[in-house]
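Propose amino acids for all 185 sites.
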């Protein structure tokens, strides 16, 4: 699909993106599936905390997150995936960092995600992000498997922070216009 010079555009999702994101989740092994309605609703109510990545207007990745109501300085990353055929190195890492930096710029001092202990690639991304921002990563059991149904793993909370509000982003070269960021990979 995408060439080595493909451009990924990161943008705030809209409810119209919900079904395409649901299709991406359905085709991504290991992700918890939700209804397409959940993504449409999410992109209505939590769009400002989520991102989609597109190449030539095709959704090739997404990230959903929200600010915790009882801890508004905490940004929780709920779900993320990228298409296997996007052709852009480290797209998932760039998507996470862009979302985290947008929230940090809006006052987030902590980034949280729940991760299976076996998901070493995501754990490495979280630890690298924390290290580059001189922040700690604290780990604790968020939800034991028995709360989540048969065949589900423990959800381990990874909490990064505190993040300094004035640390410049170590992000990719880009242009920003109205919540759209182009990344050349």
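Proposal:
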């Amino acid at each position: 699909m995408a060439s080595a010079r493909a451009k990924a555009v990161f943008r705030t999702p809209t409810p119209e993106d919900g079904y395409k994101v649901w299709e991406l989740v359905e085709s991504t092994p290991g992700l918890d599936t939700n209804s397409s309605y959940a993504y449409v609703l999410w992109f209505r109510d939590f769009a400002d905390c989520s991102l989609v990545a597109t190449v030539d207007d095709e959704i090739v990745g997404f990230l959903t997150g929200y600010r915790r109501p009882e801890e508004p300085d905490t940004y929780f990353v709920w779900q993320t995936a990228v298409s296997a055929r996007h052709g852009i190195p480290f797209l998932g890492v760039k998507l996470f960092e862009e979302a985290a930096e947008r929230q940090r710029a809006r006052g987030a001092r902590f980034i949280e995600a729940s991760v299976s202990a076996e998901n070493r690639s995501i754990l490495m991304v979280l630890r690298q992000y924390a290290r580059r921002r001189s922040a700690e990563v604290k780990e604790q059991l968020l939800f034991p498997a028995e709360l989540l149904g048969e065949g589900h793993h423990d959800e381990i909370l990874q909490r990064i922070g505190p993040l300094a509000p004035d640390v410049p982003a170590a992000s990719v070269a880009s242009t920003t216009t109205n919540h759209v960021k182009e990344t050349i990979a």
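The mean pLDDT is 87. The CA atoms of residues 34 and 128 lie 29 Å apart.
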